[in-house]
Design a protein that fits this description.
Layout: H1 3-28, H2 31-39, H3 42-52, H4 65-81, E1 84-85, E2 93-97, E3 100-112, E4 115-119, E5 125-127, E6 134-143, E7 149-150, E8 155-156, E9 167-170, H5 181-191, H6 194-203, E10 208-212, E11 228-231, H7 233-240, H8 247-257, E12 263-278, E13 282-290, E14 294-304, H9 318-337, E15 344-351, H10 359-366, E16 375-381, E17 389-393, H11 399-413, E18 416-419, H12 432-438, E19 443-449, H13 469-486
Helix pairs in contact: 3-9, 3-13, 4-9, 9-13, 10-12, 11-13
Amino acid sequence: MNRIMMRNSLLFGIWVCCCLPLCAQREKMSKKQLDVFHSISSNEIMEYVHELCKEEYNGRLAGTGEYMKCAYWCAELLSGFGLEPAGDAGSYLQHFRMPTTDLLDCQLRRQEGDKRVEYTFPRDFYPGMNSDSGRVKDAEVVYVGYGITAPEYNYDDYKGVDVKGKIVIIERGIPYRDKDEKKRFDLYMRYASESYKLPRALEKGAAAVLLVGKLAHTGIDFRKGVIYTHIDPSMVDDLVAKAGYTREKLRKQIAEKHQPCSFNTGNTLEMNVRTRHYPYATACNVIGVIKGVDTTSSIVLGAHLDHLGNNGLMFPGALDNASGVALQLAVAKALATSGVKPEKNIVFAFFGAEERGIKGAIHYLNHPTFPLDRTMCMLNIDMVGNGNGLAVWGAETFPEVAGVFRQANDTWIHRAFEVTPYERATSYSQADGDEFSKRGIPALYIATTEELKPMYYHDPRDREETLTPEIMEDAAKMLFLALPEIVKIKGVLREK
């Protein structure tokens, strides 16, 4: 064989090796499936995002009428796609109680000699979105570090200071920068959350709380008598300056000495918060299903429908999580119209109140539509609208699943692709998937990598223009290809 023939033979062999998987994939797909695959469109996905971010939904806060209006819109789409309802009493909606609070006003003023210094929203503070109503007039301001009492570590931020009737400043997180990871984890899990710190301040007699870190935080439960707001770190510097401190100096001193540094700042503050609480408000999950050949076994796709609402500014929540909802709607429509009967049920769950403590996912798990012991896994879709690469976090531990996603990407999508090992959640949940994981149902996370645009997390600037539509289209196409193959895997996924 001469060199030309050898070269041509080699090139032909390479072509065959590269093209056989592609040809096999094409042979598996009918013309209808192929047409549906190509019909998945970034334009349609962005239309869903645009709808979800509309002012009429007012930031989609679970427990409000605006959220319910958005849920009805989502349910109507699932009905139009042809998914079967899988909520309460033959509907798409699965209701649960979700107390909510209307924020009417929040004012902060500091007395400085004969004049009052007015702090302004949103520059200096974000109101506490589940604060009780109340007015605290000319109260002394006390810095109490992290607001933690941990006798087992001989640590107490309240030791030696009187906070009765006063306003306390509390830092986020924990004070320790200890090398002992077990100690740090234990402290974090017991003491870092606001659900511990705010009641503790109330027990000590504090009249109100300033939480350091300007956040729109809807996950803090309403408690009668707890008045609070979130303040910018620059406001802490204003309030501790009389004592010769800066916030950074205080944090550094506490961390290095592993000892509290709590003191009266020498300032007085007037704090006036007006809210209206609705203890019997409700929210819902929106659930539809494409029934499988085996109707007793399922895979769950989950994307949280809610966001942070309005604290004086509306939070559109484009990336978090209109992107995930829009992507999941696109996949639901494509699979429902493809004519493919999956081996197992494919459940599309749009969870409510993720931002308010994972309440919707917890409700589903306590009242499952389909048996949990026959739910093979959960795929969590959250914040997938900004990037240039694709990933499935946790899939590395399940090679069959990882292989399906990788083949779909390598054959059709051609993006950078990653998988990571699975780590089962054990305690504090930060996403819907964590709750499934704690119940023994592996939760894998559909993600995007290589961020292309600025990311605004829990920020009113999280708008449509910060998304990259093409990556959402490709993520939807990857799921469209992968899901019918994944549900062919026998049984429930288990850690190796």
